[in-house]
Amino acid sequence: MKKWLVALALGLACAAQAQQKNYAEKVNPFIGTGGHGHTYPGPSLPFGMVQLSPDTRLKGWDGCSGYHYTDSVMYGFSHTHLSGTGIEDYCDVLLMPVTGQPSWNNEEYASPFSHKNEKAYAGFYSVKLDKYNIQASLTATKRVGLHKYEFPAGAKEGHVLLDLYHRDIVINSSLKVVNDSTVIGMRRSTSWAKDQILFFAMKFSQPFRSHNVALGDTAKGALQQAEGRNIKAYFTFGNTTQPLYVKVSLSGVSEEGALKNLNAEMPGFDFDQTLASAKAAWNKELGKIEVKGGTEDQQTIFYSALYHACLNPNLYMDVDGQYRGTDLQVHKAESFDNYSVFSLWDTHRALHPLMTLINQQKTNDWINTFLAQYKHGGMLPVWELSGNETFCMIGYHSVPVIVDAYQKGIRGYDAKYALEAMRSYAEGERFGMQHYIRQGYLSMDTQPESVSRTLEYAYDDWCIAQMGKMLGNTEVYNRYMKRAQSYKNVYDASTGFMRGKIGGRWMSPFDPTEVNNFFTEANSWQYSFAVPQDVSGLIRLNGGKEQFTKKLNQLFTTEDKLSGRHQSDITGLIGQYAHGNEPSHHIAYLFNYAGQPWRTQELVHQVMSTLYHNAPDGLSGNEDCGQMSAWYVMSAMGIYPVTPGSGIYALGTPTFDEVKLHFENGKSFTIKAGNLSNKNFYVQGVTVNGKQLPHSWIAHSTIMQGGSMEFTMGAIPNKTWAAAEANQPHSAITDNPVVAVPYAEAPSDRFTGSVQVTLKEVEPNTVIYYTLNGSTPTNRSTRYTKPITLTNTTTLKAVAFRNGQYSQVMQTPFYRIPTDKSIQVLSKVHPQFDAGGPDGLIDGIRGQNDFRLGAWQSHYPGNLEAIVDLKAPRQLKKLGLSVLQDLGVWIWYPTQVEFLVSDNGKDFTSAGVVKNTFSDREYGSFTQVLSQPVNLKARYVKVVATTHGAIPDWHPGKGEPCHIFADEIIIE
Hints:
Blueprint lengths: L1 H18 L33 E3 L17 E2 L1 E3 L15 E5 L7 H4 L1 E2 L6 E3 L2 E6 L4 E7 L3 E7 L7 E6 L5 E11 L2 E9 L5 E9 L5 E6 L2 E2 L5 E4 L2 E7 L6 E8 L3 H11 L5 H16 L2 E4 L3 H14 L4 E2 L6 E3 L5 E3 L6 E2 L1 E2 H4 L3 H8 L1 H18 L5 E3 L2 E2 L8 H10 L7 H12 L6 H7 L10 H21 L3 H10 L7 E2 L4 E2 L2 E2 L2 E2 L7 E2 L8 H4 L7 H7 L3 H13 L5 E2 L8 E2 L2 E2 L18 H14 L16 H11 L1 E2 L7 E4 L6 E5 L5 E7 L7 E7 L2 E2 L4 E3 H5 L2 E8 L28 E3 L4 E2 L3 E6 L6 E5 L10 E2 L4 E3 L3 E9 L2 E2 L3 E7 L5 E4 L3 E6 L22 E3 L4 E23 L9 E7 L6 E7 L9 E22 L17 E8 L1
Helix pairs in contact: 5-18, 8-9, 9-12, 10-12, 12-13
């Protein structure tokens, strides 16, 4: 009897195993490797530390991942890669198998390849290197990459190149040959991560016959140790009849740590077993969401999206728990796994909410990593990369990740310490925070991307308020709920858009399609719906639901084109909706909040059908470390987190007949769609556990309890389902209402004789008080009743007063500029950086170190050339030009400035030339005055600043013209 039971159990187990789906092979890792997806095709484990992948492109925006599908030449295989970022980095520790005479030059050792000889699925990649007729196959464990090289028949010997100089700028590197099959080393480099420290250990499956080390591309022979910035080495093998295996482990801590990782995770060289384990890991991860139905392409898109969503964040810790913190010191993790690569501006929106469903333990690990970064590095991450805080993007979006998790009961960390960490950033000095706190918004004269920052700070503040409330801290709740309403201070009722301010004045002229420095990778159309914490308040500002839905529809249907600065990230356009970048991702779901879920269903179906494809260019924009794919995964299930931290998901339109989520708590939740087809994407009704669901949202807690939700689908929109107010999802701030700050209207902030200023309130029944003497206005100050005439340089301060409550203080300066000279600008001025007009070069107003904060004038393309008329001959003592350099944004100092003088404005003679001596390769933002003393008399001064010319080849903008930025012509 017992034998029969055992046999039955074994049979059932085998049957179950046979029926287990091979999710790994449903994945197409090439999705996103073309277009602007910026993904890589090589193997990694879920959230693994190693990303072993081929490198085909070393520079440029579409080379961020190191691979682009349009390329046909391969440099080799490196062990770290970024998935879908918009800035290049990683591609560390390159190996390249070759035959014949080795070369140190990467253009010479690189090999052509063909996509017909490439194969990839989750955990595996292979390619034939045509130049050498070598078949290369790759797989990985968490911390180790495994290479398999099959040399051509008849090859007398084979070589493996190790290139530590590959890709970004090397600060220092080292190599040590331990024995005839083991090599260890270090690579310290600078790029996006300013100080990336990486150690590696490498073992070959057979001893190498000889080796040769090059320093600076000069062969130095069989060195046992080497150190320098440019180290490469060839290892030569005589036995080419058998495959050569190479395993490489990484560590952020030490060479010893890399060896520990290597020995712990891959004691042998069993490629097939390693691959089987990688596939099993991916099958387990991807099997957390089972889908049935849909087309084969839809299933491939779904599982490829889920795969991409599970690549980041990356494990960043050795097997013994040691890791390098954001203080760049070594620490040991206690009771959590440490991670890196937090693209939080992107991933807080959908990727992290997705992980609260299928990876709650890892969510705890990530939050504990945040807190470790606060402990050791002094702040929660913004965009952390290999222990380096890059400060890329805006906001403090580790906050919604923590709050969303805590609200959902994921609480394996010190919540009070987390609140302290959140407040530390939110009360700090970074990126205009004190200006934002003081005046309730950011303006262009205090911080670039001021509108976007204000809106995203306000949402993060709402999250902090929720954390305060859940922890019983009323003081924190009240303070941050007020700050969460700061979005009202950048909403312009006269246009119906979020609009930038300069001081307390609206930026003018205004065009909502314009991409400019008031917004982050977007324009006003895309940011005017960025109030997930108070959709009800946004609807009120827009004049009610009818006006709001009209505006929403216009976003998707307008035929207006983008204007202003070219921004590569703004792609996947439907009207002005830009699915290729994250600020738009929640917008289609806002129709639910206005009682029109059928319109959400139309638009989500359109996005799913037209902007995701089973092809290399199958993404409409950067993958952004899983966010672009997480949007698809969530939307394909029929749910989306519009407001992470609220605990609810808006309902959309499902893609599959059935989706089954498997949770870590042992429960599961099934989402079914009856009568679903490509035309039947409208929701007719929904039930949860057999009961009617009248509203167009579902709580996270309902899903986690297990059970089922069933959609009934049809070809015609059901405009009554979830249309009533009571059945709509609600996102509303009802506590601690604030009074919006007033704003000023004036022709300019600069004037010669006088200027007239009008003050206006945002909300009705509001009184405005103002001061002109620098004091803070109260209801005892002058009450505004009519336009104010200013005749001198003045800082105007004003408050709105309503129902016994003050707004924050609006302050805006007005400058009376000198009239003793005039200027004629002869060169071409970039319209987005005109410093208010030609007089910007002689107004006495100096710019700050950040070119985006106004006062700076861009002369582009070509030289800067201008003539100043002093109105009468004057004795001159000094001539100068104040200029700025910021290579990251294509601004170079002029190579020289020549000053010429004239008495008639026509015939000029040179008064001298000042050469620039500052480095033209120094990254960062710098200013200087190129000046010289003179002793002469003249009426006219001509300034000619010579452009640096075309951007050099070593720069990402190579070949393009550079800018000259100047803020003042100095004449004493």
